[in-house]
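A quick aside before the break. I want you to see a complete sequence-to-structure record at least once, exactly as it would be stored in a machine-readable document. Don't worry about memorizing anything.
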Amino acid sequence: MESSCVCVFYIIGIIVWIYLWIYSGAMKSQKVIKTLYIPFCLCILFMLANALILGCFPAVGDVVLEESLFNFLEKRAQLTLQVSASVLIVATIIYGVSHEKFPTLFIRLETLSFVCLIGLMAPVTWIPVNKPAWLMILRHAQTVPFLMGIFLCVAGIMVLLNDLSEIAEDSGFTNQKD
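That is the input. The structure line, written in C-alpha coordinates, reads:
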Protein backbone atom coordinates (compact mmCIF):
# COMPACT_ATOMS: atom_id res chain seq x y z
CA MET A 1 0.00 0.00 0.00
CA GLU A 2 2.81 2.42 0.90
CA SER A 3 4.56 1.83 -2.41
CA SER A 4 1.35 2.61 -4.33
CA CYS A 5 1.01 5.87 -2.43
CA VAL A 6 4.63 6.78 -3.18
CA CYS A 7 4.28 5.87 -6.88
CA VAL A 8 1.39 8.35 -7.03
CA PHE A 9 3.74 11.02 -5.60
CA TYR A 10 6.14 10.44 -8.48
CA ILE A 11 3.41 10.47 -11.14
CA ILE A 12 2.02 13.72 -9.73
CA GLY A 13 5.61 14.97 -9.51
CA ILE A 14 6.13 14.36 -13.24
CA ILE A 15 2.96 16.29 -14.07
CA VAL A 16 3.98 19.17 -11.78
CA TRP A 17 7.49 19.09 -13.30
CA ILE A 18 6.11 19.48 -16.83
CA TYR A 19 3.87 22.33 -15.66
CA LEU A 20 6.81 24.08 -13.92
CA TRP A 21 8.94 23.64 -17.02
CA ILE A 22 6.29 25.24 -19.21
CA TYR A 23 5.50 27.95 -16.62
CA SER A 24 9.17 28.94 -16.30
CA GLY A 25 9.51 29.44 -20.05
CA ALA A 26 12.13 26.71 -20.37
CA MET A 27 9.96 24.69 -22.77
CA LYS A 28 10.02 27.54 -25.31
CA SER A 29 13.73 28.13 -24.75
CA GLN A 30 14.56 24.48 -25.51
CA LYS A 31 14.17 25.33 -29.19
CA VAL A 32 17.15 27.69 -28.90
CA ILE A 33 19.11 26.17 -26.01
CA LYS A 34 19.09 22.50 -26.95
CA THR A 35 20.96 21.44 -23.79
CA LEU A 36 17.82 22.24 -21.76
CA TYR A 37 16.40 18.92 -22.94
CA ILE A 38 18.93 17.22 -20.64
CA PRO A 39 17.62 18.43 -17.23
CA PHE A 40 14.02 18.22 -18.44
CA CYS A 41 14.32 14.57 -19.49
CA LEU A 42 16.60 13.55 -16.62
CA CYS A 43 14.16 14.78 -13.99
CA ILE A 44 11.37 12.73 -15.56
CA LEU A 45 13.73 9.75 -15.88
CA PHE A 46 14.75 9.90 -12.21
CA MET A 47 11.14 10.17 -11.04
CA LEU A 48 10.11 7.27 -13.26
CA ALA A 49 13.11 5.23 -12.06
CA ASN A 50 12.21 5.87 -8.42
CA ALA A 51 8.58 4.89 -9.03
CA LEU A 52 9.62 1.78 -10.96
CA ILE A 53 12.18 0.65 -8.39
CA LEU A 54 9.67 1.18 -5.61
CA GLY A 55 7.00 -0.67 -7.61
CA CYS A 56 9.29 -3.63 -8.30
CA PHE A 57 11.02 -3.76 -4.92
CA PRO A 58 8.63 -2.41 -2.31
CA ALA A 59 10.71 -2.36 0.83
CA VAL A 60 10.58 -0.32 3.98
CA GLY A 61 13.68 -0.11 6.14
CA ASP A 62 13.69 0.11 9.89
CA VAL A 63 13.25 3.48 11.60
CA VAL A 64 17.02 4.09 11.92
CA LEU A 65 17.62 3.47 8.21
CA GLU A 66 14.68 5.63 7.12
CA GLU A 67 15.84 8.48 9.38
CA SER A 68 19.40 8.22 8.01
CA LEU A 69 18.07 8.60 4.48
CA PHE A 70 16.61 11.98 5.43
CA ASN A 71 20.15 13.12 6.29
CA PHE A 72 21.26 11.96 2.84
CA LEU A 73 18.53 14.04 1.18
CA GLU A 74 19.28 17.04 3.37
CA LYS A 75 22.99 17.02 2.52
CA ARG A 76 22.27 16.82 -1.20
CA ALA A 77 19.73 19.65 -1.01
CA GLN A 78 22.20 21.75 0.97
CA LEU A 79 24.86 21.18 -1.70
CA THR A 80 22.45 22.25 -4.45
CA LEU A 81 21.48 25.39 -2.53
CA GLN A 82 25.15 26.28 -2.03
CA VAL A 83 25.87 25.80 -5.73
CA SER A 84 22.84 27.93 -6.67
CA ALA A 85 23.83 30.70 -4.29
CA SER A 86 27.42 30.66 -5.55
CA VAL A 87 26.30 30.82 -9.17
CA LEU A 88 23.93 33.68 -8.37
CA ILE A 89 26.75 35.64 -6.71
CA VAL A 90 29.14 35.09 -9.62
CA ALA A 91 26.44 35.93 -12.16
CA THR A 92 25.52 39.11 -10.30
CA ILE A 93 29.16 40.20 -10.36
CA ILE A 94 29.60 39.35 -14.06
CA TYR A 95 26.40 41.04 -15.19
CA GLY A 96 26.93 43.94 -12.79
CA VAL A 97 30.32 44.73 -14.33
CA SER A 98 29.20 44.26 -17.92
CA HIS A 99 26.42 46.11 -19.66
CA GLU A 100 24.63 42.89 -20.56
CA LYS A 101 21.13 42.11 -19.34
CA PHE A 102 20.69 39.29 -16.83
CA PRO A 103 18.93 36.33 -18.51
CA THR A 104 15.37 36.33 -17.17
CA LEU A 105 14.99 32.58 -17.66
CA PHE A 106 18.03 31.98 -15.43
CA ILE A 107 16.43 34.00 -12.63
CA ARG A 108 13.09 32.20 -13.03
CA LEU A 109 14.70 28.75 -12.99
CA GLU A 110 16.86 29.52 -9.95
CA THR A 111 13.89 31.03 -8.12
CA LEU A 112 11.81 27.93 -8.80
CA SER A 113 14.75 25.80 -7.68
CA PHE A 114 14.80 27.64 -4.34
CA VAL A 115 11.02 27.28 -4.05
CA CYS A 116 11.30 23.51 -4.57
CA LEU A 117 14.30 22.98 -2.29
CA ILE A 118 13.31 25.34 0.50
CA GLY A 119 9.59 25.92 0.11
CA LEU A 120 8.41 22.43 -0.84
CA MET A 121 11.08 20.07 0.47
CA ALA A 122 12.08 21.64 3.78
CA PRO A 123 8.69 22.12 5.46
CA VAL A 124 7.43 19.08 7.27
CA THR A 125 3.83 18.87 8.37
CA TRP A 126 4.33 15.88 10.59
CA ILE A 127 7.13 13.57 11.60
CA PRO A 128 5.97 10.01 12.16
CA VAL A 129 7.38 8.37 15.26
CA ASN A 130 8.40 4.71 15.17
CA LYS A 131 6.52 4.12 11.90
CA PRO A 132 9.08 3.20 9.23
CA ALA A 133 6.45 2.97 6.48
CA TRP A 134 5.28 6.51 7.18
CA LEU A 135 8.87 7.74 7.28
CA MET A 136 9.42 6.14 3.87
CA ILE A 137 6.33 7.91 2.51
CA LEU A 138 7.51 11.25 3.92
CA ARG A 139 11.01 10.71 2.49
CA HIS A 140 9.64 10.13 -1.00
CA ALA A 141 7.30 13.10 -0.63
CA GLN A 142 10.45 15.17 -0.08
CA THR A 143 12.39 13.46 -2.87
CA VAL A 144 9.99 14.73 -5.56
CA PRO A 145 10.61 18.47 -4.92
CA PHE A 146 14.28 17.64 -4.28
CA LEU A 147 14.63 16.24 -7.81
CA MET A 148 12.76 19.20 -9.27
CA GLY A 149 14.99 21.65 -7.39
CA ILE A 150 18.18 19.99 -8.57
CA PHE A 151 17.19 19.93 -12.23
CA LEU A 152 15.80 23.48 -12.15
CA CYS A 153 19.16 24.58 -10.75
CA VAL A 154 21.04 22.68 -13.46
CA ALA A 155 18.79 24.18 -16.14
CA GLY A 156 19.40 27.66 -14.77
CA ILE A 157 23.16 27.14 -14.87
CA MET A 158 22.86 25.90 -18.47
CA VAL A 159 20.94 29.05 -19.42
CA LEU A 160 23.57 31.22 -17.76
CA LEU A 161 26.46 29.42 -19.46
CA ASN A 162 24.70 29.65 -22.82
CA ASP A 163 24.21 33.39 -22.36
CA LEU A 164 27.83 33.90 -21.28
CA SER A 165 29.11 31.94 -24.28
CA GLU A 166 26.96 34.08 -26.60
CA ILE A 167 28.36 37.24 -24.98
CA ALA A 168 31.89 35.89 -25.46
CA GLU A 169 31.23 35.07 -29.11
CA ASP A 170 29.70 38.50 -29.76
CA SER A 171 32.68 40.17 -28.10
CA GLY A 172 35.19 38.15 -30.08
CA PHE A 173 36.60 36.32 -27.03
CA THR A 174 36.42 32.90 -28.58
CA ASN A 175 39.37 31.27 -30.25
CA GLN A 176 37.57 30.01 -33.32
CA LYS A 177 39.71 29.56 -36.41
CA ASP A 178 37.96 30.41 -39.65
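Two observations worth writing down. The chain has a mean pLDDT of 86. The CA atoms of residues 106 and 160 lie 6 Å apart. We'll return to this after the break.
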